[in-house]
Design goal:
CATH superfamily: TonB-dependent receptor, beta-barrel domain
CATH topology: Maltoporin, Chain A
Number of strands: 33
Radius of gyration: 24 Å
Length: 613
Amino acid sequence: MKHFPGLFSFFTLLLTFSPIIAQQTLKDTVLFNEMIITGTKNSVSRNNVPLTVSVITQKQIEESSESALLSILSWQVPGVFVTERGITGFGVADGSAGSINIRGIGGNPNTQILVLLNGNPQFMGIMGHPLPDAYVASDVEKVEIIRGPASTLYGSNAMGGVINIITKEQNEEGFRTNAQTMFGSYSTQKYMINSGYKENNFSVFASFNHDQTNGHRASSDFGIDNGYLKLGFDINAAMNINADFSIAKFNASDPGPENGVPGYRSDITRGMGAFAFENHFENTNGSFRFFYNYGVHNVTDGYYSNDKNYGVILYQSLNLFNESTITLGFDYKQYGGIAKNTNALNGNVIVFGDTTNWECAGYGYIQQTLFERLIVNAGFRLEHNDVYGNEAVPSGGLAYHLANSTTIKASVSKGFRSPTIMELYLFLPANRNLQPERMVNFDLSVLHKFLNDRASIEITGYKVKGDNMIQTVMGPTGPRNQNTGSFSNVGVEVAGSYRPAGNLGFQLNYSSINMKNPILAAPQQQLNLSTTYNWQSISVNLSLQHINKLYTQISPTEITESYTLLNSRISYLFDNYIDMFIKLENITNEKYYINYAYPMPGTVVFLGLNLHY
């Protein structure tokens, strides 16, 4: 940690005095006992997972009043940044946004962060990255984010981290409906309705969303429709089956760079379906899942693609010994599709590629509690890809409870990413001999609750080093994809909360990163502050975000952007069935860029109404 000498000194001091600090409180804490599944594939306390995991709750999602889910991440999770380009909608192709960056890792396009929907991988079969517009906030129970590699459990694309979107389901008997409508600047309209029903062993949840806007720039209009359906049936107390389906259809326009000409329009359809059989016995639990994703992309420059990504996920966890859990799993997936240009050569179609790749893996993961306070785990995955062969992926970590209020975590893990169909076969730089990208991550965290459980803090230091990065290199025969890149990042992340009174709360998260080589869409420093005050039927939220030295361009010259945003939301609860809110974004009318040469909106105002039945 030579780049952060103060960080090492801080951890040394904290580890020395933490047994004394821990005596302030011995109560269980909400922060420590949040139950998560993404870190181990079992429902366990976040306190017992050595990986660095953040959780965005349903309450935080609803209070944001955002329709696009991934827009919330940059404000709620340290070390995570998602690019945006306008008032709503991420778009595709040139001028698009939605790149997800965790600790300076994400890729361009985003192929190094794995997005899951209820544990099922979500990415385009050809390009290898997710489309953020397909994920809406109204369907979501919570989001679990692993900040660091999780390839041992989840394979390729989980190289830099995992975002697991866990959707809602109807848990209470009877019928429940929620609806929201919003109107705002630039003729923006947002509508949402979801309903759930449960009777005995059967449950259903469904939602529909519609967003549209003229956009804050000429030719930046956007419109999207999303539909989601989830069905569940409890066979008995130990076994259940569930299935979910979603479809998103949107039209996006590229306004082009500032002082330039507008780009192309895109017509996109993305869909997915999944089926799961789950078991929860006394000493064993597991799941069998089948998933299928597809997409149809039409761009006015003539580009057309039809892609798919499907497979099976099987795992079973066994509690064979006291305080010990062994998880064994197997994954298989196929991905690919066809890409072509329908406008080329006076209307004669040029097919760029029509192919499918497959990969399978087996893995084992063990977690053991020792001496009541120490939890250790280790995992190993062997992945086989039909292009490059085998990839071994080890990981290990520990969590030590100094007391119920203080936990120390440490982990080391390997991450990797398989080359995509596009990198292997499509367009001029394609190279069939590419190998996986690889990285190693070291984490050290301290979590502590104090002031009689009214305040909490989590401090994490990390170091990541990657090699074999796929880059386009100019050679004697033209550009070609090669495994030539590398990176080394060292950073610190802080997340804290303080509730001095029941109706007043403060939250903070901060991250700082030192990058050996600059990385696009990665800020060197990021600070988010928010406070919420409730008085009778009125709720007021104020949030501030400061971004320092965000890399918007790294070639041919490095360009960074620094800015500060101030947002507010005020709501009034009429009764248990209706509330109204006003939301203001960029109150100070800050002029800033996230994508190079694509100016962001000034002050934006929304007026909204929520109905609950």
